[in-house]
Amino acid sequence: MSRRCRFRDAAALAGALLLVGAPAASAQTYHSGQNLQPVFEGWEQNDDGSFNFVFGYLNRNYEEHLNVPVGPDNYFEPGGADQGQPTFFYPRRQRVIFRVRVPADWGDKELVWTVTAHGRTDRAVGWLVPEQIIDDQVIAMNRAGGGAPDIVNAAPGIELVESTERTVEVGEPLTLTAIVGDDGIPAMRPARNSRPPGRRNALGLRLAWIQYRGPGTVDFDPWSAPMEDHTPGWTPPPLPEDGRIVTTARFSAPGTYVIRGMADDGYLYSAADVTVTVTP
Questions:
Q1: What is the pLDDT of residue 192?
Q2: pLDDT of residue 196
C-alpha cells in the first residue's frame, strides 16, 4: 500500500473516531472484548533539528482496561521494540500519550507501532508527512475542543518531592507528593455539553495519576479516571495554595510498574514518571 493510501486511510480513521460519541455510533459501544487501535497523532520538530513522533490510542472498550506488555503484542519497528510506549491502556480515546524522538536525518522512513489485543492486530504508522505536523495549538484543540492562536499558554509544571525510584510491598500504601503550578491560562471552566458527547473537557489546573505500565493494577487515592474531566459539569477540584498534592497508591501484584503524574490545564499537560518495584 502506498504512503498516499495509508494517509488517506488514516484520515478516514480519524474521521470515524470523531463519530464515536454520536447517537448512531453510541448504540454499538462495548464494555469489553474489543481491540486497541494505536494512533499516530502527528509530529513535532525540536530546536536541535530532531523530531518527535506523537502517539495516542483508542481502546474500543468503554470499561475494560487492557494490559499488553512490550513484546510480540506491543512493539515498535524499526529499532528496539520498546520505545517508551504504555503497556496499560485505559478505556476509550486517549490523546497525545507519549513521544518517540527520531534524529534530524530521519527522512521519509516510517515508524510503526503494532498492538495485538483480543486477537486483533492494529498498527499506527508515523512518518514526516507535512500535513501531520502539530504544535501546542493543535494539541489543545484536539484535547479540549477549543483554544485560540492568539492565546499564549504554557504547559503546567510538576515537581515530584520523593524519589522517582520507589519500592513498596503489595497492598501497602505508597505516598506520592507532587507540586504543580500553572500560568492561569486557560481560565477554569466546567466541562461543557458537546456533539459528539464527551468532546470538550474541563479547563483549569489539576493533577491526575495514571498507571502507565505494570503487571497488575494500581489504585490511587484520590482518583480521577481518564475522560472523567469530559463529563459535562465536571470541574477541577480546588488546589492548595502551595500546589502541593499528596496521593497514595496501592499495587495489586508484585512486579515493576511505571506510574505517571500529570499536571494538566485542560489544553496542555506535563508528566513526571515514577518507577515502582512492588515486592510480595
A1: 84
A2: 64
Q: Which residues pair with 220 in a beta bridge?
A: 249
Three-state DSSP class for 26?
helix
What one-character DSSP code corresponds to residue 200?
Answer: S
The residues of the chain scoring below 50 in pLDDT are 1-27
Scan for cell 516510517, then name that residue. Answer: 110
pLDDT number for residue 19: 36
Position 148 scores a pLDDT of: 61
Per-residue pLDDT at 47: 95
Torsion of CA 142, 146, 150, 155, to 10 degrees: -60
Domain presence at residue 29 = yes
Domain end (from 101, 134, 167): 134
Do 175 and 79 lie in one domain? The reply is no
- Chain centroid to CA 63: 17
Q: What is the pLDDT of residue 25?
A: 42
Tell whether 193 is covered by a domain. yes
Number of domains in the chain: 2
What pLDDT shows up at residue 21?
Answer: 40
- Domain of 212 in residue numbering reads as 157-279
Answer for the pair 249, 268: CB distance below 8 angstroms, yes or no.
no
**Do 161 and 101 share a domain, yes or no?**
no
Which grid coordinates belong to 215? Answer: 503487571
Question: What's the per-residue H, E or C state across 41-81?
Answer: EEEEECCCCCEEEEEEEEECECCCCEECCCECCEEEECCCC
Enclosing H/E stretch for 139? helix 136-144
214 and 177 share a domain?
Answer: yes
Q: Domain ends where: 68, 100, 134?
A: 134
